[in-house]
Amino acid sequence: MIELGRDDYSAFANRVLWSLFGVTTIIVALRIVARLHFSTRLRVGLGLDDYITLICLILSLIVCILTTVASEYGLGRHFYELDDNERINALKYNAIINAVLIWQFSLPKFAIIAILKRILNYGTKTAVLFWTLGITSQACILAVSIWWFRQCHPIEFGWDKSIPGGTCADIKIMIDLAYFTSAYSSFLDIFFALYPIPFVMRLNMPLRGRLAVAGALSLSSLAFVVSVIKLSALGQAFAISATDPTYPVPYLDILGMSEGYILIICSSLPALGPLFRAAKGKLTSRDISTHKSNGNVGSSLHSLHKSFPNAKEERLTDEMERSIGGNSSSVDDIPLVTSPMRSQSSTPGTGIQKTVNISMTSEAIKPGMDSRPRGVQIF
C-alpha cells in the first residue's frame, strides 16, 4: 500500500502538500470575499464556520512548513541513509507534525456543523447531537496528540534513543489509538456528508439550488474515502516504522492532509454561490450588450426575451443565498426537534394585509329606466 516505487517521499510530499494548500487557500479566499462583499445585500457575514475554516487553513500552513523543514533532515527517506543528527531531527519533527496534523483533518468537521446550522437552522437537540459527535472526536485527537510525546520518558527519548535510561510504552497503545481515531473520523466524514441531504432537498429554495448545496456537501464523502485508505495503510506503516521510522511518514501525512483539505473545500462551496451568480450575470450582460450594439432587432428581442427568466433566476438565487446565510424562513422539520423557523413563519400578522369590502345590490329594471347599474360600490 505504501510501496509506490519511491525511495524518497520528502520531495514528493512537499510538492503535493503545498499544491493542495495553494488550491485550498484560493477557495477559502473566494469564500471570505463572497461573505464580505455580499454581506450587506444578503444580510450575512463572517460566521463561526468561516473562522473555523481560517484556523484549519493556518494549521495546514504550519504543517506544510514543518514538513518542508523535516524533509531537509531526511523525513521521507530511508532511516539507514541518514546520519545520527538527521535521524534525531527527522524523528523530532515527525512527532511535532503528527501532533498538529491530526487537528487539521479533525477541526473542519466543526466547520461542517456550523455551515449546516446556516443552511438548515436545526434545533437544540440536533445541535447537541452534532456537537457531541464533534467534541468526542476532538477528545480522541487530543489524546493522540498528548500520547505522541508522553509515550516515552523522558520525552526526548522518543527521537533520541541514545539517552541513557529512557523507556517507551508499548507501541500497541499508539496503534490502537490511531486506529480508533481514524475509524471514528471516517464515520463522521460519511455521516456529515449524507445526513443533511434529505433535509436540504426540503428547503424553500429552487430545485437547482438545493441540488447544488446537497452536491457540495456530499462531496465531503471523498474525505471518507481518503480516510479509509489511510486506515488501511496504518498497519503497514507501523510495521515499516519498526525498522524504518522516517520513510512512511510523509505518505500518511499526504492522506491526512488531503482529508482535511477536502472537508475545508466542501464546506466552502455553498458560500461561493453569490460569486458564481455575479460572474454569470456579468457574462449575460456582456452578451446582451453585444447583441444591442449589432443593431439586430431580432437578436435584441431574443436577448430581451432571455432577460426575463434571468431576472427570475436571480430572485430565486437570492432566496437560496439568504437560506445559506441563515435568514431563510424554511419550515423544514429537522430530526429530533422542530425547526424554530416554523413557529416564526406561522405567526399571524407578520405580513402586509389588504382588505377589500365589496357590496352588491340589485333592482328591477322598468321600461324607460336607465339600465346602468347603480348599486355596485367598492370601498
End-to-end span in angstroms? 82 Å
Biggest beta sheet summary: 2 strands, antiparallel
What is the β-strand count? 6
Radius of gyration: 30 Å
Overall pLDDT score: 77
Description:
- The protein has one domain: Rhopdopsin 7-helix transmembrane proteins (Up-down Bundle), CATH 1.20.1070.
- It is built from 14 helices and six strands.
- It has helices at 10-37, 39-42, 48-72, 84-104, 108-120, 124-150, 171-194, 197-200, 207-218, 221-241, 249-268, 273-293, 297-324, 340-345; strands spanning 152-153, 167-168, 333-334, 337-338, 358-360, 376-378.
- The strands form three sheets. The chain has a two-stranded antiparallel sheet with strand order 1-2. A two-stranded antiparallel sheet has the order 3-4.
- The model is unreliable at 297-351 and 372-379 (pLDDT under 50).
Question: How do the helices and strands line up, and which of them pair or pack?
Answer:
Layout: H1 10-37, H2 39-42, H3 48-72, H4 84-104, H5 108-120, H6 124-150, E1 152-153, E2 167-168, H7 171-194, H8 197-200, H9 207-218, H10 221-241, H11 249-268, H12 273-293, H13 297-324, E3 333-334, E4 337-338, H14 340-345, E5 358-360, E6 376-378
Antiparallel strand pairs: 1-2, 3-4, 5-6
